[in-house]
Amino acid sequence: MRLIINGQPQEAPELGTVADLARWMGLPDFGSAIELNGQVIRKAEWPQRGLQAEDRLEVVRLVGGG
User: Fold this and answer.
1) Model-level pTM?
2) Does residue 7 belong to any structural domain of this protein?
3) Among 57, 33, 59, 60, which Cα is nearest to 44's?
4) What 3-state class would DSSP assign to 18?
5) What are the coiled-coil residue ranges (predicted)?
6) Is residue 12 in a domain?
């Protein structure tokens, strides 16, 4: 499955949902945001929101520090 993640084409296994993508990318349970085709997806919707080939995703991981 080809996805565009943070502007870069990526080959990924067949991922059914945004939650599958988060697991595949190893995103932490807290401090991550995903935008799918220009729309921010609430974390509660990740398990229901499907993915299709050529979807554009922006993935952001929050970083703490001082």
Assistant:
1) 0.89
2) yes
3) 33
4) helix
5) none
6) yes
